[in-house]
Design brief:
heterodimer; A: alpha/beta; FAD/NAD(P)-binding domain; D-Amino Acid Oxidase, Chain A, domain 2; 2 domains; 8-stranded mixed β-sheet; 23% strand; B: mainly beta; Folate-binding fold; two-stranded antiparallel ribbon
């Protein structure tokens, strides 16, 4: 008589139930059957002792990398290790804005690719991520800033990315809420990227997790990586709170804490960790149908589908791992808010929170191989990681699967700093607290 | 709100100061080579724990201070002049 099968040793996908396809008809059917036919969107996997690829970090970029590895590059022997439950890190802490209105050509191409992937994402994942292309509007407040934004808009047009300039009159009609003649920084005009907008951020994590899980990826929650195993200049796996896991390739996707994880492998990165705060007001009726970015300070605002105004500002400005933020920046953001939109003064702020950012030395992200073979980094997202999730996942998956950088992310390598190829969108130099 | 005890002006709000980054970096000798200079300019230990950093008291005495601060609790352990060797607790916890 043969021994009973050891299910723990079986590949995870063999014992995995699918959550099935989501559709209108399924909704109707489940409604008639008392909603008893739904199953978990992704399987709670138990880690196996070895994988071809281990991704550290179950945030947007980690889950997207796993999803594209499995569906685009055919590598399904993948585990995503997350310290807590997925979706509670920066993927659930951002202000949900997507756009590609950058200035440097490499960056425009990369973020535009991401925006194109957002446009087809819900159909591809069969998951409602509430992608809403309501437009992102940047306001300018001086002649010099008009020149700067015109240059940026032209640069985008040269690369085929649509945008439109808006006059004061057009702004009056489009965003009546904005105090164009505010005494501090009167608004001279704006430039709109109509395809920019917002996405429900939690749904991005859930959608990618479901897609990756169904494609055979193990999503392991409550599994903290405590060390990185090395054999000379080669990374061979990770130590975790649930035992050691061997891997051919380890991919770090832990923006905010990249320095900490890299230090486990003996690497020092060109990154500082800073906190960025975000805020949401009480829910109100539809008030704002576009994302507005203030040009005379750091402030951006949009209205969520639930009705709250979601807004944020700049990083607090000194190294920290505290996920909370301090009051001087809260005050600065509130000042900018009521300068631009005086009506906001009547609203109560419901919640405030902070997320820890990897601030790189040039303000651009890092998707790169490292001096150690078998170790790949996706990080350094500064405060722009959310919009880049699809492109970040796809290009990181390419790097892991093929061993060569994706053409659209070649400029985001680690070696650019020593080689003098930094991609400094704002031109401020190696001072992360100023980006 | 951080309260930074300036050795010249006394304890003041963080809004009087400007952060100037990691103060633990030492400029390599002129002949150290490209790799050493690239590391000096770009690489940061970025510790989760005690951090030696520069703060400029712009709205006070306008002097540059060296501060030892914890990057999780934000507790300030030591403040001194730029040339002073900082006192950094051996234990990473605040």
């Amino acid at each position: 008589m043969s021994a009973p099968p050891d299910f723990k040793q079986q590949p995870a996908r063999a014992r995995r139930a699918s959550s099935g396809r989501y559709s209108f008809w399924r909704l109707v059917r489940e409604g008639l059957k008392g909603q008893r036919g739904w199953s978990r969107a992704w399987a709670k996997a138990v880690p196996r002792p070895a994988y071809r690829v281990v991704i550290v970090g179950g945030g947007g970029h980690g889950l997207a990398t796993a999803y594209y590895l499995a569906t685009e590059y055919g590598i399904t022997d993948v585990a995503v290790l997350e310290r807590g439950p997925i979706g509670l890190g920066n993927v659930g802490r951002n202000t949900t804005i997507i756009r590609s209105n950058y200035f440097l050509p490499d960056n425009i191409r990369f973020y535009e690719y991401s925006l194109k992937l957002w446009e087809g994402l819900e159909r591809r994942l069969n998951f409602n991520a509430m992608v809403s292309q309501r437009g992102t509007l940047n306001l300018f407040h001086s002649e010099a800033q008009r020149d700067l934004f015109t240059r940026r808009a032209n640069q985008m047009r040269l690369l085929g990315v649509d945008n439109e300039p808006l006059s004061r009159q057009q702004l009056k009609e489009r965003v009546p809420l904005v105090d164009l003649d505010n005494g501090r920084y009167p608004v001279l005009g704006g430039f709109l990227q109509p395809r920019g907008g917002t996405v429900r951020h939690d749904a991005v994590a859930w959608g990618y997790a479901r897609g990756a899980s169904e494609a055979g990826v193990d999503i392991v929650e409550h599994c903290e990586v405590t060390g990185i195993r090395r054999d000379g200049a080669r990374v061979t796996g990770v130590e975790t709170s649930r035992g050691p896991i061997a891997a051919e390739t380890v991919c770090l996707a832990v923006a905010g804490h990249s320095s900490q994880l890299a230090a486990m492998a003996g690497l020092t990165l060109p990154i500082e960790s800073h906190v960025l705060q975000a805020f949401v007001t009480e829910a109100i009726k539809p008030l704002l149908d576009v994302v507005i970015t203030y040009g005379a300070g750091h402030f951006y605002v949009s209205q969520s589908d639930k009705g709250g105004l979601v807004f944020g500002g700049a990083i607090d400005g000194y190294n920290t791992y505290g996920q909370r933020g301090t009051l001087p920046m809260t005050e600065e953001v509130a000042c900018a808010a009521v300068t631009l939109l005086p009506g906001l003064a009547r609203l109560k702020v419901l919640r405030q929170w902070g997320g820890v950012m990897d601030m790189t030395m040039d303000g651009s992200p890092i998707i790169s191989a490292t001096p150690l073979s078998g170790l790949v980094i996706n990080g350094g997202w500064c405060y722009g990681g959310f919009k880049a999730i699809p492109a970040g996942g796809m290009t990181t998956a390419h790097l892991v699967a093929r061993g060569t950088p994706h053409p659209l992310a070649r400029h985001l390598d680690l070696a650019r700093f020593a080689d003098g190829r930094t991609r400094d969108e704002r031109g401020v130099g190696p001072f992360p607290y100023l980006h | 709100m951080l309260r930074i005890p300036c050795p010249y002006c006394g304890e003041r709000d963080e809004t009087e100061f400007r952060y100037r980054g990691d103060a633990s970096r030492a400029r390599p000798p002129a002949d150290a080579g490209l790799a050493a200079f690239a590391a000096y300019v770009y690489e940061r230990a970025n510790p989760r724990g005690w951090h030696v950093e520069w703060w400029l008291h712009v709205a006070g005495c306008r002097r540059l201070l060296k501060v030892v601060r914890h990057t999780e609790s934000h507790q300030i352990h030591w403040v001194g002049a730029p040339q002073e060797p900082p006192s950094v607790p051996a234990d990473a916890s605040p």
